Amino acid sequence: MRKGYLSLIILAASCLARPVFAQEEDPNAVLDASRAAIAELGGFTASFDMRGDGSDMIKSTMPSMNGQLVFGEHPEYGKSVRMYGSARDKAEGETYAIDLLRSKEVLVWVDMKERTINEYPADTTARGVPTAAKLMMFDILLDEDPYGRRLDQAESIAIEAQEQVGGELCDVVRIDYAKPARAAGRSRNVQANYTSARYFISTNDHLPRRIDHITDGGMIKFQMITELTNLVSVKPSDEQIRVNRLEGFTLVSRLKPEEPSEPKQPAGDIPITKPGEKPDTPIGQRLPRAPGFEFTDAEGVKINNASQIGRVTVLYFHGSWCLPCRDTSPLVSSIAESFASQDVDVFAVAVRERDPDAVRSEFRSAGYSARLVLDADEVASRFRVRLYPTIVVVNKGGEIVFEDHLKKDFDGQQLVDATINAVKLAIAG
Fold this sequence. Notes:
This protein has helices at 2-16, 27-39, 56-59, 131-134, 238-241, 323-338, 356-366, 377-382, 412-428, and strands spanning 44-54, 64-74, 78-88, 96-103, 106-111, 116-121, 154-165, 168-177, 196-202, 208-216, 221-233, 250-253, 294-296, 302-304, 312-318, 344-350, 371-373, 390-394, 400-405. The protein is an alpha+beta fold. It has two domains: 27-253, Lipoprotein localisation LolA/LolB/LppX (outer membrane lipoprotein receptor (LolB), chain A), CATH 2.50.20.10; 294-428, Glutaredoxin (3-Layer(aba) Sandwich). Strands 7-8-9-10-11-1-2-3-4-5-6-12 form a twelve-stranded mixed β-sheet. A five-stranded mixed β-sheet has the order 17-16-15-18-19. A hairpin with a 5-residue loop joins β9 (196-202) and β10. α6 (323-338) runs parallel beside α9.
Protein backbone atom coordinates (compact mmCIF):
# COMPACT_ATOMS: atom_id res chain seq x y z
CA MET A 1 0.00 0.00 0.00
CA ARG A 2 2.81 2.35 0.92
CA LYS A 3 4.54 1.53 -2.36
CA GLY A 4 1.36 2.52 -4.22
CA TYR A 5 1.23 5.90 -2.50
CA LEU A 6 4.93 6.41 -3.17
CA SER A 7 4.42 5.69 -6.88
CA LEU A 8 1.60 8.22 -7.05
CA ILE A 9 3.75 10.86 -5.36
CA ILE A 10 6.64 10.25 -7.78
CA LEU A 11 4.25 10.38 -10.76
CA ALA A 12 2.73 13.66 -9.57
CA ALA A 13 6.16 15.18 -9.01
CA SER A 14 7.30 14.18 -12.49
CA CYS A 15 4.24 15.82 -14.04
CA LEU A 16 4.87 19.02 -12.15
CA ALA A 17 8.51 19.02 -13.24
CA ARG A 18 7.72 18.91 -16.96
CA PRO A 19 9.00 21.97 -18.83
CA VAL A 20 6.48 24.67 -19.66
CA PHE A 21 6.72 26.75 -22.81
CA ALA A 22 7.55 30.37 -22.00
CA GLN A 23 4.77 32.66 -23.18
CA GLU A 24 5.49 36.01 -24.80
CA GLU A 25 3.84 38.72 -22.70
CA ASP A 26 3.77 41.50 -25.30
CA PRO A 27 1.06 41.05 -27.97
CA ASN A 28 2.81 43.50 -30.30
CA ALA A 29 5.98 41.40 -30.18
CA VAL A 30 3.95 38.32 -31.17
CA LEU A 31 2.36 40.17 -34.09
CA ASP A 32 5.68 41.64 -35.22
CA ALA A 33 7.33 38.21 -35.24
CA SER A 34 4.42 36.93 -37.32
CA ARG A 35 4.63 39.90 -39.71
CA ALA A 36 8.32 39.11 -40.28
CA ALA A 37 7.59 35.40 -40.85
CA ILE A 38 4.83 36.18 -43.37
CA ALA A 39 7.05 38.69 -45.20
CA GLU A 40 9.71 36.00 -45.69
CA LEU A 41 7.22 33.31 -46.67
CA GLY A 42 7.31 31.99 -50.23
CA GLY A 43 3.98 30.26 -49.80
CA PHE A 44 2.24 27.34 -48.11
CA THR A 45 -0.49 24.75 -48.44
CA ALA A 46 -2.83 23.77 -45.60
CA SER A 47 -6.15 22.19 -44.77
CA PHE A 48 -8.75 24.72 -43.62
CA ASP A 49 -11.97 24.51 -41.67
CA MET A 50 -14.35 27.44 -41.25
CA ARG A 51 -17.28 27.21 -38.87
CA GLY A 52 -19.60 29.34 -36.80
CA ASP A 53 -20.16 29.21 -33.06
CA GLY A 54 -22.89 30.68 -30.88
CA SER A 55 -26.28 29.68 -29.54
CA ASP A 56 -27.98 26.66 -31.13
CA MET A 57 -30.41 28.93 -32.94
CA ILE A 58 -27.64 31.08 -34.39
CA LYS A 59 -25.36 28.15 -35.26
CA SER A 60 -28.11 26.62 -37.40
CA THR A 61 -28.04 29.68 -39.67
CA MET A 62 -24.26 30.03 -39.97
CA PRO A 63 -22.21 29.01 -43.02
CA SER A 64 -19.34 26.53 -43.00
CA MET A 65 -16.48 25.57 -45.34
CA ASN A 66 -13.61 23.13 -45.43
CA GLY A 67 -10.96 22.05 -47.89
CA GLN A 68 -7.51 23.21 -48.97
CA LEU A 69 -5.98 26.68 -48.74
CA VAL A 70 -3.01 27.68 -50.90
CA PHE A 71 -1.01 30.88 -50.44
CA GLY A 72 1.63 32.03 -52.90
CA GLU A 73 2.49 33.86 -56.11
CA HIS A 74 -0.02 33.57 -58.96
CA PRO A 75 1.53 33.93 -62.45
CA GLU A 76 -1.08 36.54 -63.47
CA TYR A 77 -2.41 38.11 -60.29
CA GLY A 78 0.65 38.13 -58.03
CA LYS A 79 0.35 37.23 -54.35
CA SER A 80 -2.89 35.29 -53.91
CA VAL A 81 -4.93 33.04 -51.61
CA ARG A 82 -6.84 30.14 -53.15
CA MET A 83 -9.48 28.10 -51.29
CA TYR A 84 -11.18 25.03 -52.70
CA GLY A 85 -13.33 22.33 -51.18
CA SER A 86 -16.97 22.31 -50.06
CA ALA A 87 -19.31 24.73 -48.32
CA ARG A 88 -22.78 25.21 -46.87
CA ASP A 89 -24.61 28.50 -46.53
CA LYS A 90 -26.24 27.23 -43.31
CA ALA A 91 -25.96 24.17 -41.06
CA GLU A 92 -28.68 22.12 -42.76
CA GLY A 93 -28.15 23.63 -46.18
CA GLU A 94 -27.05 21.93 -49.37
CA THR A 95 -23.34 21.16 -49.69
CA TYR A 96 -21.72 22.60 -52.80
CA ALA A 97 -18.21 22.76 -54.25
CA ILE A 98 -16.13 25.93 -53.97
CA ASP A 99 -13.02 27.05 -55.82
CA LEU A 100 -12.06 30.69 -55.43
CA LEU A 101 -9.01 32.92 -55.46
CA ARG A 102 -8.33 36.34 -54.02
CA SER A 103 -5.45 38.70 -54.83
CA LYS A 104 -5.05 42.37 -53.96
CA GLU A 105 -6.77 43.36 -57.20
CA VAL A 106 -8.82 40.39 -58.39
CA LEU A 107 -11.43 37.96 -57.08
CA VAL A 108 -11.98 34.76 -59.11
CA TRP A 109 -14.45 31.98 -58.41
CA VAL A 110 -15.99 28.99 -60.18
CA ASP A 111 -19.79 28.81 -60.23
CA MET A 112 -20.67 25.14 -60.70
CA LYS A 113 -24.41 25.74 -61.17
CA GLU A 114 -24.05 28.46 -63.78
CA ARG A 115 -20.96 26.79 -65.29
CA THR A 116 -19.03 30.07 -65.24
CA ILE A 117 -15.60 31.26 -64.15
CA ASN A 118 -16.02 34.75 -62.71
CA GLU A 119 -13.38 37.48 -62.56
CA TYR A 120 -14.30 40.51 -60.46
CA PRO A 121 -12.39 43.38 -58.90
CA ALA A 122 -11.39 42.35 -55.37
CA ASP A 123 -14.49 43.84 -53.72
CA THR A 124 -16.34 41.29 -51.62
CA THR A 125 -19.31 43.65 -51.20
CA ALA A 126 -20.16 43.52 -54.92
CA ARG A 127 -23.50 41.99 -55.89
CA GLY A 128 -23.25 38.33 -56.82
CA VAL A 129 -20.08 37.57 -54.86
CA PRO A 130 -20.48 34.18 -53.10
CA THR A 131 -20.61 33.90 -49.32
CA ALA A 132 -17.37 31.90 -49.29
CA ALA A 133 -15.46 34.84 -50.78
CA LYS A 134 -16.83 37.21 -48.15
CA LEU A 135 -15.51 34.99 -45.36
CA MET A 136 -11.90 34.52 -46.50
CA MET A 137 -10.32 35.55 -43.20
CA PHE A 138 -6.85 34.50 -44.30
CA ASP A 139 -6.84 37.09 -47.08
CA ILE A 140 -5.05 39.19 -44.43
CA LEU A 141 -1.91 37.50 -45.82
CA LEU A 142 -2.25 39.76 -48.87
CA ASP A 143 -2.05 42.96 -46.85
CA GLU A 144 1.13 44.97 -46.39
CA ASP A 145 0.40 44.68 -42.67
CA PRO A 146 -1.45 41.39 -42.14
CA TYR A 147 -2.71 42.53 -38.74
CA GLY A 148 -3.30 46.17 -39.61
CA ARG A 149 -6.97 46.09 -40.57
CA ARG A 150 -9.05 48.32 -38.31
CA LEU A 151 -6.14 48.86 -35.89
CA ASP A 152 -7.13 52.52 -35.79
CA GLN A 153 -10.39 51.35 -34.17
CA ALA A 154 -8.71 49.07 -31.61
CA GLU A 155 -9.63 49.76 -27.99
CA SER A 156 -7.35 47.11 -26.51
CA ILE A 157 -4.87 44.42 -27.49
CA ALA A 158 -3.86 41.64 -25.13
CA ILE A 159 -2.24 38.22 -24.81
CA GLU A 160 -4.48 35.34 -23.79
CA ALA A 161 -3.51 31.85 -22.61
CA GLN A 162 -1.70 29.71 -25.17
CA GLU A 163 -3.76 27.11 -27.02
CA GLN A 164 -3.13 24.16 -29.31
CA VAL A 165 -4.32 24.31 -32.93
CA GLY A 166 -3.82 21.13 -34.92
CA GLY A 167 -0.90 20.10 -32.74
CA GLU A 168 0.75 23.55 -32.87
CA LEU A 169 1.19 25.51 -29.65
CA CYS A 170 -0.03 29.03 -30.36
CA ASP A 171 0.20 32.42 -28.71
CA VAL A 172 -3.25 34.01 -28.73
CA VAL A 173 -3.59 37.75 -29.38
CA ARG A 174 -6.98 39.36 -28.84
CA ILE A 175 -7.93 42.75 -30.27
CA ASP A 176 -11.14 44.46 -29.14
CA TYR A 177 -12.54 47.16 -31.39
CA ALA A 178 -14.71 50.17 -30.73
CA LYS A 179 -18.32 49.30 -31.48
CA PRO A 180 -19.73 51.38 -34.34
CA ALA A 181 -22.42 53.91 -33.54
CA ARG A 182 -25.87 52.47 -34.12
CA ALA A 183 -26.72 55.30 -36.49
CA ALA A 184 -23.83 54.32 -38.73
CA GLY A 185 -25.49 50.97 -39.46
CA ARG A 186 -23.77 47.75 -40.42
CA SER A 187 -21.23 47.56 -43.21
CA ARG A 188 -21.96 45.48 -46.30
CA ASN A 189 -18.52 44.00 -45.71
CA VAL A 190 -19.29 41.15 -43.30
CA GLN A 191 -15.68 41.15 -42.08
CA ALA A 192 -16.03 44.76 -40.92
CA ASN A 193 -18.83 44.10 -38.44
CA TYR A 194 -17.05 41.99 -35.83
CA THR A 195 -16.23 43.57 -32.47
CA SER A 196 -13.19 41.45 -31.53
CA ALA A 197 -10.59 39.32 -33.28
CA ARG A 198 -8.38 36.55 -31.92
CA TYR A 199 -5.22 35.50 -33.76
CA PHE A 200 -3.66 32.13 -32.92
CA ILE A 201 0.01 32.33 -33.95
CA SER A 202 2.35 29.34 -33.87
CA THR A 203 5.21 29.64 -31.38
CA ASN A 204 7.24 27.49 -33.78
CA ASP A 205 7.13 29.26 -37.18
CA HIS A 206 5.14 32.38 -36.13
CA LEU A 207 2.53 31.82 -38.85
CA PRO A 208 -1.18 32.23 -38.05
CA ARG A 209 -3.08 28.98 -37.52
CA ARG A 210 -6.52 30.25 -36.57
CA ILE A 211 -8.53 33.47 -36.75
CA ASP A 212 -11.71 34.17 -34.77
CA HIS A 213 -14.02 37.04 -35.66
CA ILE A 214 -16.29 37.69 -32.68
CA THR A 215 -19.47 39.74 -32.89
CA ASP A 216 -20.95 40.83 -29.58
CA GLY A 217 -24.26 42.58 -30.03
CA GLY A 218 -25.27 42.31 -26.38
CA MET A 219 -28.24 39.95 -26.61
CA ILE A 220 -26.71 38.21 -29.62
CA LYS A 221 -23.15 36.93 -29.63
CA PHE A 222 -21.45 34.66 -32.14
CA GLN A 223 -18.13 34.07 -33.83
CA MET A 224 -16.72 32.83 -37.13
CA ILE A 225 -13.66 30.61 -36.83
CA THR A 226 -11.19 29.66 -39.55
CA GLU A 227 -8.53 27.13 -38.63
CA LEU A 228 -5.49 25.87 -40.56
CA THR A 229 -3.95 22.44 -40.01
CA ASN A 230 -1.28 20.36 -41.79
CA LEU A 231 0.45 23.56 -42.92
CA VAL A 232 3.46 22.98 -45.18
CA SER A 233 5.68 25.95 -46.05
CA VAL A 234 6.36 25.55 -49.77
CA LYS A 235 6.16 27.69 -52.88
CA PRO A 236 3.05 26.37 -54.65
CA SER A 237 3.09 25.37 -58.30
CA ASP A 238 1.08 27.33 -60.87
CA GLU A 239 -1.41 24.47 -60.96
CA GLN A 240 -1.91 24.60 -57.19
CA ILE A 241 -2.51 28.36 -57.04
CA ARG A 242 -4.86 28.60 -60.06
CA VAL A 243 -8.60 27.93 -59.90
CA ASN A 244 -9.67 25.05 -62.12
CA ARG A 245 -10.51 26.30 -65.62
CA LEU A 246 -13.06 23.61 -66.34
CA GLU A 247 -13.83 22.65 -69.92
CA GLY A 248 -17.13 24.00 -71.20
CA PHE A 249 -17.31 26.78 -68.57
CA THR A 250 -17.81 30.38 -69.71
CA LEU A 251 -15.50 33.16 -68.53
CA VAL A 252 -17.40 36.13 -67.09
CA SER A 253 -15.06 39.05 -66.47
CA ARG A 254 -15.90 42.40 -64.93
CA LEU A 255 -12.30 43.54 -64.91
CA LYS A 256 -11.59 46.76 -66.73
CA PRO A 257 -9.18 46.34 -69.65
CA GLU A 258 -5.75 47.76 -68.87
CA GLU A 259 -4.95 51.03 -70.59
CA PRO A 260 -1.40 51.49 -71.88
CA SER A 261 0.59 53.89 -69.75
CA GLU A 262 4.14 54.97 -69.15
CA PRO A 263 5.96 52.59 -66.84
CA LYS A 264 6.44 54.00 -63.38
CA GLN A 265 7.90 52.89 -60.09
CA PRO A 266 5.24 51.37 -57.83
CA ALA A 267 4.45 53.35 -54.71
CA GLY A 268 6.58 52.30 -51.81
CA ASP A 269 9.05 50.34 -53.97
CA ILE A 270 12.22 51.80 -52.52
CA PRO A 271 15.60 50.92 -54.05
CA ILE A 272 17.78 48.99 -51.61
CA THR A 273 21.47 49.84 -51.41
CA LYS A 274 23.74 46.92 -50.59
CA PRO A 275 27.33 47.21 -49.36
CA GLY A 276 29.65 48.21 -52.19
CA GLU A 277 26.82 49.24 -54.51
CA LYS A 278 25.50 52.63 -55.60
CA PRO A 279 21.77 53.22 -55.56
CA ASP A 280 20.26 51.87 -58.77
CA THR A 281 18.30 54.82 -60.14
CA PRO A 282 17.19 54.41 -63.78
CA ILE A 283 17.81 57.35 -66.09
CA GLY A 284 14.94 59.81 -65.90
CA GLN A 285 13.59 58.26 -62.70
CA ARG A 286 13.87 60.07 -59.39
CA LEU A 287 14.40 58.59 -55.98
CA PRO A 288 11.27 58.56 -53.80
CA ARG A 289 10.96 61.61 -51.58
CA ALA A 290 10.59 61.17 -47.85
CA PRO A 291 7.04 61.75 -46.61
CA GLY A 292 6.33 64.85 -44.58
CA PHE A 293 7.47 64.27 -41.01
CA GLU A 294 7.91 66.25 -37.82
CA PHE A 295 9.02 65.17 -34.35
CA THR A 296 10.89 66.36 -31.27
CA ASP A 297 13.86 64.39 -29.95
CA ALA A 298 14.35 63.55 -26.27
CA GLU A 299 16.42 66.72 -25.78
CA GLY A 300 13.60 68.94 -27.05
CA VAL A 301 15.04 69.67 -30.51
CA LYS A 302 12.36 69.92 -33.22
CA ILE A 303 13.10 68.01 -36.42
CA ASN A 304 11.27 68.06 -39.75
CA ASN A 305 11.91 67.75 -43.47
CA ALA A 306 13.12 71.34 -43.77
CA SER A 307 15.56 71.11 -40.85
CA GLN A 308 17.23 68.08 -42.43
CA ILE A 309 17.89 69.57 -45.86
CA GLY A 310 21.67 69.52 -46.34
CA ARG A 311 22.08 66.70 -43.81
CA VAL A 312 21.89 62.91 -44.12
CA THR A 313 19.16 61.52 -41.87
CA VAL A 314 19.14 57.98 -40.48
CA LEU A 315 15.88 56.82 -38.90
CA TYR A 316 16.12 53.65 -36.82
CA PHE A 317 12.58 52.45 -36.05
CA HIS A 318 12.58 50.19 -33.00
CA GLY A 319 10.84 49.46 -29.70
CA SER A 320 11.71 48.14 -26.25
CA TRP A 321 9.10 45.40 -26.85
CA CYS A 322 10.94 44.24 -30.00
CA LEU A 323 13.24 41.32 -29.19
CA PRO A 324 15.51 41.63 -32.30
CA CYS A 325 15.93 45.35 -31.56
CA ARG A 326 17.76 44.56 -28.33
CA ASP A 327 20.71 43.20 -30.32
CA THR A 328 20.47 45.79 -33.10
CA SER A 329 20.32 48.98 -31.00
CA PRO A 330 23.99 48.84 -29.84
CA LEU A 331 25.06 48.35 -33.47
CA VAL A 332 23.03 51.37 -34.59
CA SER A 333 24.77 53.43 -31.93
CA SER A 334 28.03 52.72 -33.78
CA ILE A 335 26.59 54.43 -36.87
CA ALA A 336 26.14 57.65 -34.91
CA GLU A 337 29.66 57.37 -33.54
CA SER A 338 31.16 56.72 -36.99
CA PHE A 339 29.64 59.86 -38.53
CA ALA A 340 29.63 62.14 -35.46
CA SER A 341 31.86 64.76 -37.13
CA GLN A 342 29.89 64.87 -40.39
CA ASP A 343 26.52 66.20 -41.51
CA VAL A 344 24.71 63.06 -40.40
CA ASP A 345 21.93 62.69 -37.81
CA VAL A 346 21.00 59.27 -36.44
CA PHE A 347 17.61 59.08 -34.70
CA ALA A 348 16.45 56.09 -32.66
CA VAL A 349 12.70 56.34 -33.26
CA ALA A 350 10.88 54.44 -30.48
CA VAL A 351 7.43 53.20 -31.47
CA ARG A 352 4.45 51.92 -29.44
CA GLU A 353 6.09 52.55 -26.07
CA ARG A 354 3.85 52.32 -22.99
CA ASP A 355 6.35 53.94 -20.61
CA PRO A 356 8.43 56.64 -22.37
CA ASP A 357 10.26 57.52 -19.13
CA ALA A 358 11.49 53.94 -18.76
CA VAL A 359 12.68 53.94 -22.36
CA ARG A 360 14.53 57.23 -21.84
CA SER A 361 16.19 55.89 -18.68
CA GLU A 362 17.23 52.63 -20.35
CA PHE A 363 18.58 54.51 -23.37
CA ARG A 364 20.74 56.75 -21.21
CA SER A 365 21.98 53.84 -19.08
CA ALA A 366 23.11 51.99 -22.18
CA GLY A 367 25.03 55.06 -23.37
CA TYR A 368 23.67 54.95 -26.91
CA SER A 369 24.93 57.69 -29.22
CA ALA A 370 21.86 57.93 -31.45
CA ARG A 371 19.31 60.65 -30.65
CA LEU A 372 16.21 59.19 -29.01
CA VAL A 373 12.75 60.06 -30.33
CA LEU A 374 9.66 59.15 -28.28
CA ASP A 375 5.93 59.19 -29.08
CA ALA A 376 6.83 58.59 -32.71
CA ASP A 377 4.03 56.30 -33.91
CA GLU A 378 2.91 58.89 -36.46
CA VAL A 379 6.42 59.04 -37.96
CA ALA A 380 6.48 55.25 -38.37
CA SER A 381 3.04 55.41 -39.97
CA ARG A 382 4.14 58.06 -42.47
CA PHE A 383 7.14 55.95 -43.50
CA ARG A 384 4.84 52.89 -43.65
CA VAL A 385 7.03 50.87 -41.31
CA ARG A 386 5.56 47.42 -40.69
CA LEU A 387 8.51 45.35 -39.47
CA TYR A 388 10.91 46.12 -36.63
CA PRO A 389 13.68 47.04 -36.58
CA THR A 390 13.66 49.02 -39.84
CA ILE A 391 16.27 51.58 -40.91
CA VAL A 392 15.63 54.39 -43.40
CA VAL A 393 18.31 56.71 -44.83
CA VAL A 394 17.26 60.07 -46.31
CA ASN A 395 19.85 62.00 -48.32
CA LYS A 396 20.63 65.71 -48.12
CA GLY A 397 17.98 66.48 -50.71
CA GLY A 398 15.19 64.75 -48.80
CA GLU A 399 15.10 61.55 -50.89
CA ILE A 400 14.98 58.01 -49.52
CA VAL A 401 18.13 56.19 -50.61
CA PHE A 402 17.88 53.16 -48.34
CA GLU A 403 15.24 51.22 -46.43
CA ASP A 404 15.52 47.70 -45.05
CA HIS A 405 14.79 45.47 -42.07
CA LEU A 406 15.94 42.19 -40.56
CA LYS A 407 15.28 39.05 -42.58
CA LYS A 408 15.92 35.36 -42.21
CA ASP A 409 19.36 35.63 -43.87
CA PHE A 410 20.02 39.32 -43.12
CA ASP A 411 20.96 39.97 -39.49
CA GLY A 412 21.49 43.16 -37.48
CA GLN A 413 25.17 43.50 -38.37
CA GLN A 414 24.42 43.15 -42.08
CA LEU A 415 21.63 45.71 -41.78
CA VAL A 416 23.97 48.18 -40.07
CA ASP A 417 26.77 47.55 -42.60
CA ALA A 418 24.35 48.23 -45.45
CA THR A 419 23.18 51.40 -43.69
CA ILE A 420 26.75 52.66 -43.26
CA ASN A 421 27.40 52.08 -46.95
CA ALA A 422 24.24 54.01 -47.87
CA VAL A 423 25.23 56.90 -45.59
CA LYS A 424 28.70 57.10 -47.18
CA LEU A 425 27.16 57.24 -50.65
CA ALA A 426 24.67 59.89 -49.50
CA ILE A 427 27.48 62.03 -48.09
CA ALA A 428 29.41 61.73 -51.35
CA GLY A 429 26.32 62.82 -53.23
